[in-house]
Amino acid sequence: MMHPDIQSYHEQQTPDHREVCELLASTILKHLPEAESKIWHRHPVWF
């Protein structure tokens, strides 16, 4: 499940950028399910 703050970040992007953001996030969630995610310095990050 995507962090709500990251979903909100995606919704603020242009359609082309949103597509890239969502692809990256879904790939990270699929391959690194244990990673912690949050917004840091106004951008999504995973640890």
Layout of helices and strands:
Blueprint: H1 4-11, H2 15-31, E1 37-40, E2 43-46
Antiparallel strand pairs: 1-2
What does this structure look like?
The chain is α+β, with helices and mostly antiparallel strands and 47 residues long. The protein has one domain (4-46). The chain contains two helices and two strands. It has helices at 4-11, 15-31; strands at 37-40, 43-46. The chain has a two-stranded antiparallel sheet. The mean pLDDT is 95.
Q: Output the radius of gyration.
A: 10 Å
Q: Give the low-confidence spans.
A: none
Please give the share of residues in helix: 40-55%
* Structural class by SSE content: alpha+beta
Number of strands: 2
Average pLDDT works out at: 95
Into how many domains do the coordinates divide? 1
Main sheet record: 2 strands, antiparallel
Overall geometry: globular
Strand order, sheet with most strands = 1-2
As a percent range, the share of strand residues is 15-25%
Q: Termini, distance in Å?
A: 15 Å
Which series of helices and strands comes N to C? HHEE
Number of helices: 2
